[in-house]
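Researcher: Please predict.
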Amino acid sequence: MTSKLISAATVASLLLLTSLAATACSSASSNDAASEEKAEATDETSSAFGLSDTKIVGSLTYGQTSSNTPYTKTPRYRAFKFAGNAGDEIEVSVKSNNGDPVTWILDNDWRTVAKNDDASASDTNSHVKVKLPANASATHYIVVRDYWQDPMTFKVELKGGAADFVSGCEVDADCVKVDKACCSNYGSTAIVAGKEQAYKNSLACPAPLFCPLFVQAPDYSMAECNRTTKKCELVKPKDIKCGGFLLPAAQHQCPDNYNCMHSPGVNPDTSGTCVQFCGGIAGFQCHDINEECVDNPNDSCDPAHGGADCGGICKTKTP
């Protein structure tokens, strides 16, 4: 009897252990499923996105917040379109009172630029800050789904702005002259030195690049720092206030073949005007078709008295 009782107790113990093990396995399986779901929610790649499983529910511009937007798991994602260029610094906040949003920023090719699941350890809303890389299209997407793919409502707030390539200069040496567009025959602009590559990337020039055949007139403007606004700007030679009673580093300089001149009787400590040199042995021509080469009254060379090779200056043509 004793041996039978022991056997029964042993069987009971084994049954209890089996039940506990089954419960543990069930719990482990549940945890594994949750882990797999989180991995799926946070590790999706660009291959997971496309129009077939994404519903575009609206468009946003910088500074806008969407209305309350409903989400269900069919189709799997909701998306807002927005326009952004390379270098734009954007900030996206996705908030829900009854869900757990996961958010991706995609370019026009549906490639992931950035993503976020939880804004912080204590906040299950999404928050993404990113600088947009170069892309041939300005179209981008804010893509949202619920973490568990449960029904929810959410709002999207989009902040951002174009990259600033002109602010932060102190003197003209802080500024450089660059091509304004992908093709050099579309003119020039001035930006802060050191941002040349970032500015070029922001143009998102296509490859291969085909430029029109027209020839742009030479641009003799100078990249200057506006000491009032601390911004780089391109200034035409006739508008440059050169020289003056300033430290050399703070003086605006004239382009090549231009001289800083003051009208007779004007205090040389004040700013002068950039005037193009012309004539001379090399026979320089005036860049502006509305100007003509005349004798320079400030030199001792007189073309009327043997100075056939006197250099002149460009002045507006007289009627």
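Model: The first helix runs from residue 2 to 42.
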